[in-house]
Structure formats: structure tokens, C-alpha cells
Design brief:
alpha+beta, four-stranded mixed β-sheet, 3 helices, three-stranded antiparallel β-sheet
Length: 148
Amino acid sequence: MKVILLKDVAKTGKKFEVKDVSDGFALNHLIPRGLARMATPDVLKNVEHMKKAHGEQVKIQNDLLKKNLESLSEKKITISAKANEKGHLFKGIHTDEIVKALEKEHISIASEHIKLEHPIKEVGEHEITVSAHDVTGSFTLEIESSEK
């Protein structure tokens, strides 16, 4: 059975590809879960329109991300956390905490775009890299020690 994938499906194909899959896989898995539609002549005509609309949406998202990254480079984001007298944090700062701090500054960036090799465990200023698709930027994150 020929189907048009509406989402990326592992080991099957990418979004908007026309694939020939077994009837059982299509009728029992792909179509009920909204991952694909039967490739009828009418739907095949609409695939190009759907690809174009999706491309425009991705472009808008990339432009918004680029704007957010440009506004981020000028900012210094501050997070308070408990630390000992040597400046070591009791709990590491992960991407989720960074995303929450960015949202307080009215900047929306997904956690998967923030690149951290390991959680931040020291007080001070840290350079955080943000990258998505072909857009890359960075900002300064300051970790302050809060009262115990």
C-alpha cells in the first residue's frame, strides 16, 4: 500500500515521502497514529502544497530563533543556586534551568538547542552556546551563590 508520511518514521522514511509499505503496517500502525495517509490521487496533489507550507513554517521558526539569538548575545542571564564557601554548587545547573531563566527574560529557546557538555557546578560566569540548524550564538550565564 502506498502512503504519504506525515511525520518522520524510524526505519521507514522522512516527512512527506511517498512509501510503499505493507497493508498491515499502514492500516494498524501508521494511519491510526496519524503518521501517514493513504496515497490517493487527491492527497498526492496536495503533497507539494504541504511541503511548501512546511518549508515556510520552518523558515519562520529559523528567523525567530535567529532573532532570539541576536538579542541573547547582548544579555547576561543570572541564576541563583546554593553553593558552599568554595563556590561549588550543591546541585548542577542543567539546560532545563537555563531555559526557565531565559523564559523569565521573555526569550524562547528549546532545551535541545542549548549545548552543554556537562551540568554547570561552579559559581561564576559561563559562556553558553546555542545552536540550531545553521544558526549559532552564545550568551553569558552568571551563576550566583544564594544564602544557605
